[in-house]
Predict the 3D structure of the following.
Amino acid sequence: MRNAFCSALVALSARKPFVFFTGDLGFMALEPLQQALGKRFINAGVAEQNMVTVAAGVASVGEQCWAYSIAPFIYGRPFEQIRNDVCLHDFDVKLVGNGGGYGYGVMGATHHAIEDYGVLCTLQNMSVYVPAFADDLSPIVDRLSADKHPAYLRLGRCEKPKGWVLPDYAPWRRLLRGDAGVLVVVGPGAGALLQQAVQRPEAQRPEVWVVTELPVRKESVPEACLSRIRGTGALFVLEEHVAQGGVGQMLSLSLLEAGVHPRCFRHFHAKGYLSGRYGSQAFHRAENGLEPAAVLAEIARLACA
């Protein structure tokens, strides 16, 4: 997704001025953006706290600022600066974290971001975008550019099945019809899930929705999705994020407020490091029960119970 993000910002730079900060990252990927922005592309070095504070200062005089790093380095290390300098002043700063979830694999927990959007959604004025596909980046960048409030963009690896035609971008999208409950997916894992779910008969697979914009609120859940949850009586949530502060919890509260009470609910989420070992993103997904075959098998089991 990083290349799609770069292309979207290059296109934006032709229409609107902004300042881009990088924490000494993005080599062999962001050079087109550096060329397009010139002096407005700033390498802030390995100093994320300072980078976010400087971005807040530049935003205070009316500039839109984008700050980029590996996901845990853009939200974890400078959390105080995000809270105090950006969010409390409602400055136009966009935080961009690459490699969300277990994306950095064998580099281990220090490089993983499995609690990022749950943490950031606690801050006032903050919104979060978790694209599922590279195709989402252009419309998301346009939406972020038009919004003058703080935001966090979590990037991952696009896993869209070859030849899959996506519906037009929206905060919530139905990607696949099914009758075995409703499965709400957050992030790139939707692609691998679709590739396997589409091979199953419609009666034996869940209806797949992807949510991209957070936090989830009662009024943000489409009526079409609520109707299918009521009709099937089953809701499942899949996200590469811990349970606390995740979409599973946000959506559960929203459904309670809306008076929707599915008889069956299952939250597939990151549990950390069950074996105490590190491996690829695929390894961590499998260990945490987030691998598509395991998710679909568990949904089938619950549907038959």
About this structure: The CA atoms of residues 108 and 278 lie 6 Å apart.
